[in-house]
Amino acid sequence: MRLAIFADVHGKLLLPFKLVDRYQQQTGQTIDFILQCGDMGAYPDIHRLDKATLKHARQNRDELGFHDDFMQENKDIRRLLDRLNIDMICIRGNHEDHAFLDQLEQANTTLPRFPIDVYKRIFVCRSGVKQELRKDREVLYLAGIGRIGDAKGRTDPRFIQEYEQREVKKLLKSTGYIDVLITHDKDDSSQRGYGMKAIRDVLDNVPVSYHFYGHTGEPFRQETAINGITQSVKVSELEFGPSGILPEGCMLVLDHRPDGSSALEAVSQRFTNQLTQYNWKD
């Protein structure tokens, strides 16, 4: 099973699908699922943007990509998504319309993830709920924790909610392992006051092979977590730089093999440079 991993797309939800399409064509390697580490920019109503998104949207319409590309049918987008036949599985970031996502989550309480777009290709994980990804006879165990943590105890929708904390506590008591944990925030082990304690609790108590996260603005980095087991990977934000190109480590590919082994590829900038700020929508 092969997964493509992205973070912080901020409205450019179509871009990972286009990168995956090009990757498959040029490498001959099939991608089975796309994982996305929050800050989708899921704003169906442009009148409900938060201040940061509104500021960026005034300069760049890409911030409104969910509204523009995934709320109403577009025949060209439908054709691309149907041809790819790949689902994108996301977790919440801190820049989302949480009221919109809350409504969908409350209507799908029996499911580990729920669709949010008109094409039923973008799914959001319920935080702390372990789930299975299946491809033929292969199974991968996935969990996600959305939003961000806050040492000050604030509870507005940007921050992990009490009901999500309860799900994480259930996860800590469960048996078995997690192949992939996706979060928006990092764990709080490196600097007091930053990160999310719930993430560290999972890494300290549940065997996790890979942990992917975004949010922090740090460059791509892969290291062994403090638990000595987990490969902790900071995914670069899917943001075009001043020269109009994407940063190193913004697209990762995890090859999870039937025997339990795996390999992680940071897709080269030589590849990602093919899609720039100026041509990616062509």
Outline the structure in words.
The protein is an alpha/beta fold. It has one domain: 4-Layer Sandwich (Purple Acid Phosphatase, chain A, domain 2), CATH 3.60.21.10. It is 26% helix and 22% strand. The protein contains 8 helices and 13 strands. The strands form 2 sheets. Strands 4-5-3-2-1-12-13 form a 7-stranded mixed beta sheet, covered by helices on one side. A 6-stranded mixed beta sheet has the order 6-7-8-9-11-10, covered by helices on one side. Strand 8, helix 7 (197-205) and strand 9 form a beta-alpha-beta unit. Helix 6 runs parallel beside helix 7 (197-205). The longest helix has 14 residues, at 14-27. The radius of gyration is 18 Å and the shape is globular. The two termini are 30 Å apart. Residues 1-217 form the Calcineurin-like phosphoesterase domain. Pfam families: Metallophos.
Arithmetic mean of pLDDT: 95
Shape: globular
Q: Taking Cα atoms only, what radius of gyration do you get, to the nearest Å? A: 18 Å
Please identify, by name, the CATH architecture: 4-Layer Sandwich
**CATH topology, which one?**
Purple Acid Phosphatase, chain A, domain 2
Which class of secondary structure composition applies to the elements? alpha/beta
Helix percent reads 25-40%
Proportion of residues in β-strands:
15-25%
The ordered H/E elements are: EHEHHHEHEEEEHEHEEEEEH
Assigned CATH class: Alpha Beta
Q: Which parts are unreliable, with pLDDT below 50 for 5 consecutive residues or more?
A: none
Number of helices: 8
